[in-house]
Design a protein that fits this description.
The complex is a heterodimer of chains A (about 150) and B (about 525). Chain A starts with 5 loop residues before the first helix and ends in a 13-residue tail after the last helix. Chain A has one domain. In chain A, about 75% of the residues lie in helices and about 0% in strands. The relative contact order of chain B is 0.12. Chain B is about 45% helix and about 10% strand. Chain B has 3 domains: about 260 residues, Tubulin/FtsZ, GTPase domain (Rossmann fold, 3-Layer(aba) Sandwich); about 30 residues, no CATH class; about 160 residues, no CATH class. Chain B is an alpha/beta fold. Classes of the chains: A mainly alpha (about 150), B alpha/beta (about 525). The interface between A and B is medium-sized, with 16 and 18 residues.
């Protein structure tokens, strides 16, 4: 699973599966439970799924870049630099997660979503951004850089 | 117990032994080898260098217990007697006249004394022989004719021969120059009937058969040196390059006339164009000639003899000659085998072994050492999979499994120290402009010390002409070795280190430098 391009496709499949579970079952649960003032349920779910899809795409691209980076010859013996790169992308994904939530807050400002609804959305966004990045790099990083992942060091 | 014996005679014999030991370190040697040297010049620089090298080789080999399959570095068990060198005389100021007891002889047997004075000049009779025979093999022939069989190195040698039973069981190989002093004297003397081939320990059926299959490498002139002979030396016996051709001719005529008991004879030489190995020195520590590729070629003749000679009664010896076909020395020009059918395969095997061992020693001396002091090494895959950064547990574990601990670090330092000698030897051979085996200067500085990774990031990948690769690629190959399993899982940290770097070197040679291992290698 750590070999390129197998990890590219495996991570794409993983993010697709996670997006599906976050977007469809979890989305349907939200759709049935949120109190909407101006949006229809369909519109709510459309925005929900599109924004999470965007976050998932960024998450996947981050993983792909990390996998590519880890196979480059020039990085094989530079663990300090490699770990800095992982840290940078992980923090980046944290920021993407925050931005994703900010977009949802903006989109649903006029709606009467409860805190628990935002918490569920935040969980979904996390699963597709920083948590996905961390998990994917934990499982699928090329050997050369696998010990840069937080928790493996 | 080994049935393969190498006897190096004189300075050339010692330098060929040096090349032979390095080839054994590269994994190109046999599984066992008994080796000793003959030289009255105990302080000779060439001899000292070889003695140090052999001691380091044996020390390293003793400390490596387990290794991965395919890593054949230091494979050969080189056994040496104690002392390693037969210095012939116990008294370092011995002269021929004193050795034969000329003063006493004049009283007891005047006719014999007069014969001695006719055969030998005044100078030859009275020069101290502690710096060798100074290009006068006639002196050496007298003093080497009766080695002391009750003392080592000869005692162990003869004891081992005695323990063998069948004709040709022992393969004994003599190496010496025929244009100098000690070698020119020792080679025909040791090849005489009763000294080795039909010695009482070797003789079968009252001299009809022999346990010994005897080979010899007669090294013809291959080097020259600066002719700036100091005034003090001009009055004493000394040899100059202009003496070499005449001495060689005389020796070859002598060998042709006299029945020597060789089964196989190798004659190896080179023209003297740019073959300078140093400055003039009559002997002792000052005589320390730089390595030459002819010595490697001569060592290859020994290995060919050990591997491919076929014992059996023959009316005459087999003669093998080797010299340069053209100006350049490349892998395809090295004389590796008497058999035309497997020359190419043997050349490929030699190339593979030398390239991988050069990669091994260079990477160990540079990145291997850096890794042991780099705090970030804990995140490097190859290190993390095989070692812990800090050993938790009792001291015994730390001693055995921590490459950064003093015990294992000491072993690795000794291997790296040997590696530096190997790289220097390769560097010196390549100082001769015709030698085009490796682009060794890409990894060595002007003093022939290994360049660091930062100084030569692409050096390691440029060793073989026409290829380009980086040191980072070597680290990738280290990572690709992964976790060592099986018998190596519980091996010491030093053994694991050797296996890791050995496997990575092999992979790098094959995939980055296109140096393939022949089948059955």
């Amino acid at each position: 699973m750590r070999k390129t391009p197998l990890n590219y496709f495996a991570s794409l499949a993983a993010v697709g599966i996670i997006w599906f579970f976050v977007a469809v079952p979890l989305g349907n649960y939200l759709g049935e439970n949120v109190v909407l003032e101006t949006l229809t349920t369909e519109k709510f779910l459309d925005w929900y799924r599109i924004v999470l899809g965007g976050a998932a795409l960024v998450g996947w691209i981050s993983c792909v870049y990390w996998f590519f980076y880890g196979t480059r010859e020039a990085n094989a013996g530079n663990m300090k630099g490699a770990c800095r790169v992982w840290n940078f992308w992980f923090v980046g994904e944290l920021i993407v997660g925050v931005i994703t939530m900010a977009v949802f807050v903006y989109l649903y400002l006029a709606e009467a979503l409860a805190l628990v609804d935002y918490a569920v959305i935040a969980m979904g966004a996390s699963l597709l951004t920083w948590a996905f990045f961390w998990l994917c790099t934990w499982i699928m990083s090329p050997h050369a850089v696998m010990y840069c992942v937080l928790g493996r060091r | 117990m080994s049935n393969l014996f190498y006897i190096g005679i004189g300075g050339t014999g010692a330098r060929v032994a040096e090349a032979l030991v390095h080839l054994c370190a590269a994994g190109y040697g046999p599984s066992d080898l008994f080796l000793f040297l003959v030289d009255p010049d105990e302080g000779n620089g060439n001899l000292s260098r070889t003695k140090t090298l052999i001691a380091k080789y044996q020390d390293v080999r003793r400390r490596i217990k387990d290794r991965a399959a395919g890593v054949d570095l230091f494979r050969t068990n080189i056994v040496t007697p104690d002392p390693l060198v037969w210095t012939i005389f116990s008294d370092q100021n011995m002269a021929l006249s004193r050795y034969v007891g000329l003063s006493n002889m004049k009283l007891t047997d005047p006719a014999l004394a007069q014969l001695a004075e006719v055969l030998f000049s005044h100078e030859e009779l009275n020069t101290a022989l502690n710096e060798g025979f100074r290009g006068h093999p006639s002196i050496g022939a007298v003093v080497m004719a009766r080695p002391d069989e009750t003392r080592d190195p000869w005692k162990t040698f003869y004891d081992q021969i005695a323990n063998l039973t069948r004709p040709g069981d022992a393969k004994v190989f003599l190496v010496g120059s025929i244009f100098g002093g000690t070698g020119a004297a020792g080679v025909p003397t040791f090849a005489s009937e009763k000294l080795i081939k039909y010695h009482k320990t070797a003789s079968i059926e009252e001299g009809k058969l022999s346990k010994v299959h005897l080979g010899g490498c007669l090294v013809l002139p291959y080097f020259t040196f600066a002719l700036d002979v100091p005034e003090a030396e001009r009055q004493r016996m000394h040899v100059t390059p202009s003496d070499f051709p005449l001495a060689t001719r005389a020796a070859l005529q002598y060998y042709a006339l006299r029945k020597l008991n060789f089964d196989d004879v190798y004659l190896i030489g080179d023209s003297l164009q740019d073959g300078r190995v140093g400055e003039f020195a009559p002997g002792a520590a000052r005589q320390d000639n730089a390595p030459h590729y002819i010595e490697m070629a001569s060592a290859l003749s020994a290995l060919d003899f050990f591997a491919r000679s076929e014992p059996g009664m023959r009316p005459t010896a087999n003669y093998f000659t080797a010299a340069r076909a053209g100006d350049e020395i490349t892998w395809s020009g090295l004389p590796v085998s008497r058999s035309a059918a497997n020359i190419k395969q043997e050349q490929d095997r030699l190339r593979y072994r030398v390239v991988t061992s050069t990669l091994f020693f260079y990477s160990l001396c540079t990145y291997g050492r850096e890794a042991l002091v780099d705090s970030d090494i804990s995140r490097q895959y190859w290190y993390k999979e095989n070692f812990q950064l800090r050993i938790k547990g009792n001291d015994e574990e730390s001693v055995r499994y921590d490459p950064r601990g003093s015990t294992q670090r000491d072993v690795l330092d000794r291997i790296a120290s040997y590696g530096e000698l190997f790289l220097e030897w390769m560097g010196r051979i390549h100082e001769h402009p015709q030698v085009k085996l490796l682009d060794i200067r890409k990894v060595l500085d002007a003093e022939l010390r290994p360049l660091t990774r930062a100084q030569a990031p692409r050096g390691i990948g440029s060793l073989v002409g026409g290829r380009e690769a980086t040191f980072d690629a070597f680290i990738q190959d280290l990572d690709s070795v992964g976790e060592l399993r099986g018998n190596l899982a519980a091996a010491t940290a030093a053994d694991k280190y050797v296996s890791l770097y050995g496997l990575a070197s092999s992979r790098y040679a094959r995939t980055r430098l296109d140096v393939q291992a022949p089948e059955g290698n």
